[in-house]
Amino acid sequence: MGFTIALGGKGGSGKTTVAGLLIHHMIRKGMKPVLAIDADPNANLNDVLGVMLNGTLSDAREMMKKDVPPGMTKDVFMEMKMEQALVEGDGFDLIAMGMPEGPGCYCAANNLLSQLIDRLIGNYDYLVVDNEAGMEHFSRLTQKDIDLLVLVSDPSRRGLTAACRIAALVRVLPMKVKEILLVVNRLEKEPPSWPAEVVETFGPERIASLPSDPLLADFDMQGKPAVTLPEDAPIVKATARLFEQLTGLC
């Protein structure tokens, strides 16, 4: 598997926007092809990247229960559906996991999905995974090594506490994480100091910040992809600096 960046954080922290802008900078620096996996049930990484979804892997999982054509095996059916769900972009491909399992047994479908996802990942040099807060979707990946985990928080005590808890959770899960970075998003003003819990959890050199940018909010209201923001927009310049910091960590 290629170089893996995973993003996590509580809902509303802006991690999906950060994920999309990081992918934008990776592609500009020639770090491609990138496979972007939207592992948040509220899938909207495609909106940030400016592409349309063709479906999700959870749709394929539901269809496998009743819609496999006669004469087609389930593994061939699932592979076909995954290929249909894969969105091709400029320098990246995107696939959305969709909703988590509902009532009933999905073991066969999930096992097939895990095998197909691992095979798909092997075709890319870079992997960016936009997770829901609890990182639950990583249980679907048999290859669980992460080169860089970026935890995104808003500048609130609750958001920072959530980021610390996710960092603690990740350290006890059966996965290898080489580096963890905290990104405090939508910051109006740099504080004189970060809470002691945050510094103890991440270390002062593993804490970064991104500014609040009204233009980003305007783009969001107008339905414009964040990756089309002008290069001199504060959030674009700040994520470029963040990208350089991430490169230095890896």
Structure in a nutshell:
This protein has 250 residues and is α/β, with parallel strands linked by helices.
List the helices and strands and how they pair.
Elements: E1 3-8, H1 15-28, E2 34-39, H2 45-49, H3 57-64, H4 74-85, E3 87-88, E4 92-96, H5 107-121, E5 126-131, E6 146-153, H6 157-170, E7 177-187, H7 196-202, E8 207-211, H8 214-222, H9 234-249
Parallel strand pairs: 1-5, 1-6, 2-4, 2-5, 6-7, 7-8
Antiparallel strand pairs: 3-4
Helix pairs in contact: 1-9, 3-4, 4-5, 6-7
Pfam families: CbiA
Organism: Syntrophobacter fumaroxidans (strain DSM 10017 / MPOB)
Protein name: Cobyrinic acid a,c-diamide synthase
Written description of the protein model:
The chain has an 8-stranded mixed beta sheet with strand order 3-4-2-5-1-6-7-8, sandwiched between helices. Helix 1 packs across helix 9, helix 3 (57-64) runs antiparallel to helix 4 and helix 6 runs parallel beside helix 7. It is α/β, with parallel strands linked by helices. The longest helix has 16 residues, at 234-249. It has one domain (3-249): Rossmann fold (3-Layer(aba) Sandwich). The radius of gyration is 18 Å and the shape is globular. Helices cover 40% and strands 20% of the residues. The model has no long low-confidence stretch (mean pLDDT 86).
What is the string of helix and strand elements?
A: EHEHHHEEHEEHEHEHH
The mean pLDDT is: 86
User: So, the CATH homologous superfamily?
Assistant: P-loop containing nucleotide triphosphate hydrolases
Classify the secondary structure makeup into a structural class: alpha/beta
State the total count of DSSP E strands. Answer: 8
User: And the CATH topology?
Assistant: Rossmann fold
- Shape category: globular
Write down the CATH class.
Alpha Beta
As a percent range, the share of helical residues equals 40-55%
Q: How would you write the strand order of the largest sheet?
A: 3-4-2-5-1-6-7-8
What are the segments in which pLDDT stays under 50 over at least 5 consecutive residues?
A: none
Strand content: 15-25%
CATH architecture: 3-Layer(aba) Sandwich
Count of runs of 4 or more consecutive helical residues: 9
Specify Rg, calculated over alpha carbons: 18 Å
> Please, how many domains?
1
How far the N terminus sits from the C terminus, by CA atoms, comes to 16 Å
